[in-house]
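Incident review: delayed structure delivery

Summary: a single-chain prediction request sat in the queue longer than the usual turnaround. Root cause was a stuck worker, restarted by the on-call engineer. No data loss occurred. The affected request and its eventual output are reproduced below so the record is complete for anyone auditing the incident later.

Affected input:
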Amino acid sequence: MENNTTTLSVAVAGLGAIGKIVAQALDQGDIPGCKLAAVSGRDAARTAAFVNGLSSPVPAVALEKLVEHADIVVECAPAALLRQIVEPVLKAGKTAVVLSVGALLQYPELTDPSLSGRGGRILVPSGAALGLDAIAAAAEGHIESVRMITRKPPMGFKGAPLLAEKNIDIDKLTEPLKLFEGTARQAARDFPANLNVAVALSLAGIGPDKTYLEVWADPGVTRNTHSIKVVADSAVLQMTIENIPSENPRSSRITALSVIALLRKLSARVRVGT
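Output delivered after worker restart:
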């Protein structure tokens, strides 16, 4: 059941593998209660071609101007652009849907209530993670530990700062290589485009300094795999998700779908999940 008395205007920041899917779903009317209002892309020519291919073309504007066209701005851009996109949204008292959740640790001022106008908020979709509802519920009690092991095909780590810092060549791996072991906060610094799932997990649970993970480049896997174990006084959670990579090997197909599900939930009369 849907309640469509109010239609929310949605802008999409970034037209990569995820942003294009979200924008197209909005354009095609696949998300009741939401409509596409504007987009912003890095390449002007490609952005213009994308807009011209929509059933109802919308303005293509600068990142900081998206808020002038929409109630909700969906961030699907490189992590370095997070503040540029989200800060105007919060100051205008509107809603930002954030995928580069790891960058929230780099820009803690974005979560400071004093920055937001009345009603300004950040929503973080599940993305490539799983079990966030259960972890958030467990956090209402006491969580003893959260650990995650991530395995991705080597190409999924291309461009990660840690590889350049440690001069790690992953192009010719023939066996699994452990790239990292540490906290979610450290992982967000070393893999800003690869491990948003770890930060989302930490924010739902016991925080980025108490959530631990291992990161493996594994030529033996074809999917982005995350295995999670949570020990709490209410439950022991053991979960594994194998995500199919999108056209961008650093992200998963399910990430765009999780944004669509979040937007659909905003106008739903019945909302399933915590």
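Verification: The radius of gyration is 19 Å.
Action items: add queue-age alerting; document worker restart procedure.
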